[in-house]
Amino acid sequence: MGQQPNIEPGLSAAPRTRLGPGAARSWRPDRPAELKAPVDAPSGGMFGVAGPDAGYALKLAGERDFKLQPGEHHHDMAAAVAAIACARAARVGRAPTADDVTVAMTILGLDSTGPIDDGLLEQRAGWVANVGHDAAKLGSMVADVPADVLEMSPAAVAEKIAAGWVFRGGADE
User: How far is CA 153 from the centre of its chain?
Assistant: First the structure.
């Protein structure tokens, strides 16, 4: 805003110099829980195995159509599928792919190409309910998937299920 010609500016209106911030202090990671190296990061159990681009699995799962049972919601099922797909991808240190989502859907009985166990369909609504909002329940469900199943190809998982294997995640609830 311009200065009015009839008002003389005082000393308080003059620009002032300010001191900049001082030099940064040295810092070392010395807190008790500080991670100093990648090997210090916890893994396994409820920590899981972190993998890159986990959000992409949720995008892929959200685009799929699921044959849901009464009481099941697409949001919860997409979260369950994405979590299993992320666990499968993270075991080999890569981002999730469409094959990971296919394997997760097959494990959860959402793949209509193979036989689906009636017991799985009856129990699935209970243990997938609200997993999209309950990280502990979701982590527990993913931890229930055997590691050897996560490492199989989509065709091998379908064959295992055709041979009678049924995922019973959350059966203890």
Answer: 21
Q: Give me Rg for the CA atoms of the chain.
A: 27
Task: Provide the total of helices (H) and of strands (E) in the chain, helices listed first.
Answer: 7, 0
Q: Residue 51: is it exposed, middle or buried by C-beta count within 10 angstroms (0-12/13-18/19+)?
A: buried
Closest to 134 (Cα-Cα) out of 68, 74, 80: 80
Interval 112-136: pLDDT, tens: 665 566 777 777 878 788 888 998 8
Amino acid at 128: V
Which of 51, 138, 61 lies closest to 100, judged by CA?
61
Compute the Cα dihedral for 59, 76, 158, 100 and give only its sign: positive
Of the candidates 89, 95, 71, 99, the one whose C-alpha atom is nearest the C-alpha of residue 145 is 89
Q: Are 71 and 124 in contact (CB under 8 A)?
A: no
Q: How far apart are CA 51 and CA 20, in angstroms?
A: 42
pLDDT digits 0-9 by tens, 61-89: 989 888 888 888 999 999 999 999 999 99
